Amino acid sequence: MSMFLDRHHAGRCLADRLAHLRGSEVVVLGLPRGGVPVAYQVARSLDAPLDVVVVRKLGVPRHPEYAMGAIGEGGIRVLDPDVVARAGLSEAQVREVERRERVVLEARVVSLRSGRARVPLDGRVAVVVDDGIATGSTARAACEVARRLGATRIVVASPVAPAGTTAAELAADELVCCAAPVGFRAVGDYYRDFSPTTDEEVRALLDELDDDAHVAPRRRSLVLEDRANGPSRSVAGVVE
Prior knowledge:
By secondary structure, the chain is an alpha/beta fold.
């Protein structure tokens, strides 16, 4: 039975669980592509900036759907040594998979950010958001990226994850989920609409919150200026 109508609904549910972070120095990091609509709702609720953290799954050769690890921006690589050993892979084979995925990752970074500067993480709380956690390898890679970029605390937030998933195994300080079912199979099972998210949708969501971030300070400054002219007056509307 579906728990969430779609990713935006899941994001609103998740935002309720993250209310304790409101007012903190938070940056919300969506995992493209599917994690970004979820992260968008979280960022709106927390009044926090939204960015992406780009990672790629490393699939076992001949069985690419079976993750042996993940890579992330900044040269991050996370491997599951047990999976690598069971698959009988050499370091050269692992490096070849990484090389191919690294090309895709770098192209994805360029496509999704479209020249937009990365939101600084130094001294801030990074909230890493995905639409669901399965093996956890991509979430862990994202946490490693955020840690390397200076985040002082990392919260992994996901609408759903397998029962027993811990923050420690994801290299995070805190794990927040709406549900952690026993017998977890696939993330899509918990959504009524699990349609693929496109790069265009990701860019649109990033642009929308980026525009809001520029308008809101201007709106606040107008209110402050007007209050200085008289305590009983107020300003409505937005100046373009």
